[in-house]
Amino acid sequence: MSVTYPAGFTASGVTAGFKPSGLPDLGLLVGAPGTVAAGLFTSNRVSAAPVRLSRVRLAAAGPRAVVVNSGQANAATGSAGDADALTSTAFVSLAMGLDPDDLLQCSTGVIGEPLHLDLFEDGAAKLVASLGPRGGDAFARSIMTTDTVDKQAQADAPDEGFRVGGCAKGVGMIAPDLATMLAFVTTDAVVPARDLHRIAQEQLASRFNALTVDGCTSTNDSVLLFASGAAGGAPVAPGSAAWVHLSEAVAKVGESLLRQLAADAEGGTHVLIVEVTGTGADQDARVIAKAVAGSPLVKTAVFGGDPNPGRVLQAVGASGIPVDPDRLDVWFGETQLAAGGIIAPDYFTGGEVAETARSHMHDPDVHIRVRVGDGRGKSRALGCDLSYDYVRINGEYTT
Amino acid sequence: MSVTYPAGFTASGVTAGFKPSGLPDLGLLVGAPGTVAAGLFTSNRVSAAPVRLSRVRLAAAGPRAVVVNSGQANAATGSAGDADALTSTAFVSLAMGLDPDDLLQCSTGVIGEPLHLDLFEDGAAKLVASLGPRGGDAFARSIMTTDTVDKQAQADAPDEGFRVGGCAKGVGMIAPDLATMLAFVTTDAVVPARDLHRIAQEQLASRFNALTVDGCTSTNDSVLLFASGAAGGAPVAPGSAAWVHLSEAVAKVGESLLRQLAADAEGGTHVLIVEVTGTGADQDARVIAKAVAGSPLVKTAVFGGDPNPGRVLQAVGASGIPVDPDRLDVWFGETQLAAGGIIAPDYFTGGEVAETARSHMHDPDVHIRVRVGDGRGKSRALGCDLSYDYVRINGEYTT
Q1: Is residue A222 pLDDT above 50, yes or no?
Q2: Domain co-membership, A109 together with A185
Q3: Does the predicted TM-score (pTM) go above 0.90?
Q4: Chain B closest CA to A215's CA: distance in Å?
Q5: Can you give the residue range of the structural domain that contains B286?
C-alpha cells in the first residue's frame, strides 16, 4: 500500500512504453484537494528539467500530485527539456482536470535523450483511469529502473490516528544510464506546508543524504513528502506530542526506505553502515562517515570480507576534516581493531579478536564505527560494498 | 639508469626480506656531498612515521640520501613507529658513515604492522656495499610493490649540460594493503635547496596531484627531488634560461613517470586524461577534472568503451564547483558529444559522430575534455578506468 496507506491518496502505475522491457513505467500519486507538499532535490548543478519544474511549482503554488516516468531522465536536454516537462505534465493534468501548477514531476532513466511526449499523451488517460486508493503498489513498481525489488514502507501514529507511507527507487546513480534516487512519503496528518517542509528537512534530508552507493549525486534525485490532512483534527503544531509522533513515523518510513535502497544497491552484497563520533560538529562527522562509506578501498575490503582498519584510517585521514591521527579508534561490529591510531596486532597475527571481526563481515549489515576524539559531533553514512557486479552493471551493459 | 643518470648519484636495491616473494625490497639512493633535496608529502592526516621523519629532516638539515623499504608502510604504528623509523635509518646511515640527519626514508606496504628492524639491521651492509653509479635500475625495482613494471624516466638540458632522472612506484592506494605512490627525481644541476623546492612545487606538485587511481590518498605518498650539483657551473638562477631548461627537464621526467603510473594503475585498461577549461581559477578546473576522472560511473563507462557524456555532465555538476549547466561542452577525443549542456542526439541514435567517439574508446589513452565557460582557468587530471581487476585486487586477495 505504502503511499496510499494514509487516507486521502490515490495512485496508479501503468506501462506507457518508456522501458523496452514493457514493465510499468508511468506512475501517478494524487492527494485529495487540500493536500500540501514539501520537496528535497538534488544538489547537482546539472539538475534535470523535471527537478526545475517541481522546484518552481513547489515554491509558487500548493501542488498535491506527482507524475513519475521511468526510462528517461529528461536531463541534459536544455530548454527543450523544460518545454517537454511542461507539456508532458500538461497531458496528465488535463486528463485528470487538475490545475497544471498542482502537478509535480519526477523522471528517471537515460540522461540526455529527448522525452517521448507521445508516450505521455497516449498514457495519460489510462494512468488517470487507474487511480485508486490501493494503487500504492502499482505506483511503487512503476518508478523502478534497475531496482531488483520495489521499496515500500509504512508507519502509524496511533495516538493521533494518522498514518505515514512511502516508497522509493534507486540502486546507483546510473545503470545503464538509468539515474536517480526517488522517494515519496505521504501522511494523512493535517500539516501546514511550511511545517511539512520542516519535517522533510529534519526527518528526511539528513537520512537520505547519508546514503552513498557510489558517491555520484544524480541529476534527478528527489524526495517528496505529501500531507493530505484526511485524518482530520487540528493541524499538527511544532513541539506538540502529535508533532513528535508524526516526526517519528516519518523518520521510521524514511529509515526503512533508506535501508531498502542500500540493500538493493548496484552490485552490493552487504549494507555498509559507518558511524562516526567525537567530532566538534555533526557536519564534520558526516563528511568523515561518507568518506569511509564511499572509499573504494573500504568498499572492496567489505566485499572481500576483510575487516581492514588500515583502509578505514586512510579514508578518515584523507577526508579533509582535521583529525588527530593518534586519537583514532576503529571498530568492525563490536570488535575494536584500532586504538589511538594504532592497529590491533591481532589483525595481523589472526588472533581471536581478528576472527571475531572477520566473522562479522559475513553479516548482511557491516558496521564500522570510528571515534575521532571527545567531541559531541556524530553522524552516520549508509552505503554498500563494491563488487564485480557494480563494474558489470555500469561498465559492460552500456553499449 | 633513471635516478643515477645525472652525475653525482649512486643507488642500490637488494632483497632484505620484507616481501614474501623474495624480490628486492630495500633501496638506497645517495647524492654526493653537497647534494640538496626537496620533498612533497601526502596530505593525508594519517601520515606514516617515515613521512614524519623525512619532513623533519628536510626542514632541519640538508639530507642527501633516502632509504626505501617496500612491504611494510610503518603507518598507523604510533610513537613506536616513529622510534622504528629512527632506528631503521640509523642502521643504514651507520653502515655508510652518514650523518643520520642526512638520510630520508620512504616506506610502502602493509599499514599497521610493526617494522621489522632486524631486516634493516641485516640488510644495511649489503645495501651500502651494492651502491653504484649504475644502481638506478636496481633501486627502481626495489621500491615496487604490486607494480607490474618499474617506472623510470630521464631527460637532458643539453645547453647547460645537466641531466634529470627519476623513478616512481604506485598502482593504487593499497593492494593487498600495499600502499603509496613514491617518486624520486634527481639532477646534477647546481640548485640551492630553496630554489629546488620551488621547482618541485612548480613542476612536480601539480603533476602528481593530478593523478587519481581511486581517489584514495595514501598515508605514505612522497615525491623527492635531489640536486647533486655534480654538473658544475653557476647555480641555476630563477628566471634564467638554465632555470627554464631545468624546469622543462624536471617536468618531462615528472610527466613520463606520471603516465607510467597511470598506465600501470590497479586493474586499469585505459589511461584516462580529463582536461577542464573555462573556469575562473585553475583550482576550480582541477577540482572538476579530478571529480570526472575519479567518478566510478565515468570510470566504468571508459572500461565498457562507452563515450558517455551524461555521466561526465553528472560528475561535473556534482563536483561542488558552481557551473552553468547550460554552458557545458564535452568531448571524447576529438568528438563533441555535449554542447551547451545538451547531449548530441547522435549519441543515442548511433550516428557517425557517436561511432567516431566510440572508436576513440579503444585507444590506450582516453581523452575527455570539458569546457565550462569562457574563463581562463584550466587543469587536468590523470586516472584510469575501473575494471573487474580493481575489485579483484582490492577485494579478493586481502585474506
Answers
A1: yes
A2: yes
A3: no
A4: 8
A5: 271-398
